[in-house]
Design a protein that fits this description.
452 residues, alpha/beta, Metallo-beta-lactamase, Chain A, 22% strand
Length: 452
Amino acid sequence: MVLGIKTIGNATLVAYEDVPVLATDPWFGAEDDAYFGSWTLSHIIPADIRQDILDAKYIWFSHGHPDHLNPNSVQRLKHSQILLPDHVGDRIKKDLLEQGYNVQTLPDREWVSLSKRIRVFCISDYIQDAVLLVEVGGRLFINMNDSGARARLNVIPKIARGYKDSYLLRLSGYGDADMINFFDEEGNRKTPLQNHEVGKFLGQYAQRVGAKNVIPFSSFHHYQREDSAWGNAYTTPMTAYKEGFDSRLAGYIDPFVWIDCVTGEIKPISPEDAPAILRPSEDFGDNWSDEFEAGDHALLDDYFKRKAGLHDVLGFLTFKVGSKSHTVDLGGPKEKGITFEVPRGSLMAAVDYRVFDDLLIGNYMKTTLHNVESLYNPNFNFIVAKYGDNGGAETKAEVRAYLEQYRKRSGTVDWVMHQFGREGHTLFRRYVQRDSKFYAMARDVYSKALRT
């Protein structure tokens, strides 16, 4: 019998039991561009695997970024059963149901059988991403895509310990899958900071989650817009994933493979490189000389002022469009703010469709920080894109209630350790009152954990 998996594309795992049963995050690339045309796939998906994806009974989407849930690619999958994480707010589910898709929410942290020898275990997280554990014939594939290990520090290793053969699939790389197009106040581009210890990171992360093997994943794109092509110098070469990898921690498997889950045989797929063709921004509805239109300023004001968390940490956001600028007064510290220089077309589309994160990741928008450390300190990215756009939580009360739901799912110890150790004390204090019982408990748990 045929029983196994293939990895292909950006973050696509195809699981087979005689027929294709499951495909994850299928983004077909080519004409299905991402981030307002900025990204396309680095490798062509072979025709036979593309057809397997189209034929798969189940399609799972981890989150709403267009290199995972692509608005063009998903149109080809209306016949499939769509599986989604149990994200608070259900934005993706609601959107897909309105368009006539057959959608099923996977229960959080429960095994669900998809066929006789394939089952899945989904873990959602508070930035609207998710992990999918896929068991195929007794082998465990830990599909972490872009999600990291937010508030689930114990559950994955506990499960992985029960498997002789386990494989970590997750985002890794130099760091361009985020906003890196920063400029100083004199208009000079800042050289992006890069993590060149990709292999070392993958080995250490495999050890952390209890995986015995690593397959690089969710990292395979290049820039095709003329105004974002500069970013190709900062994408991760295929050779980087092995550099510094410690084989004592885990086995290394090249990207794009077939793994036979009966025999354990591994075969390379070797897809062709996608053509490196640069296209003007106008192909994607963006003309840098376009000016603001009537009503644009009010839409920008309304969109950002609704995100109440910004009011405490930023004084202003300035948008340079064409030859004019518009400043959104947020009422916070007057010296702290961000300037975005961006074409009108994609800016207003991002506001209209609530996908501002797509502008950040596209890396053609020019960003200047004024007296703030980064887009994560203060946490502009989470407040606007994760909690607001995707989670539907904009007021402070809504954000507190939103985070509380994820805390209940993960358990107090995991949640506290993550919030204090990774996101920092500042973000945690912003949404948990200092005089609350939970804050005191969280402080005690974290202190005890550090002593163990």
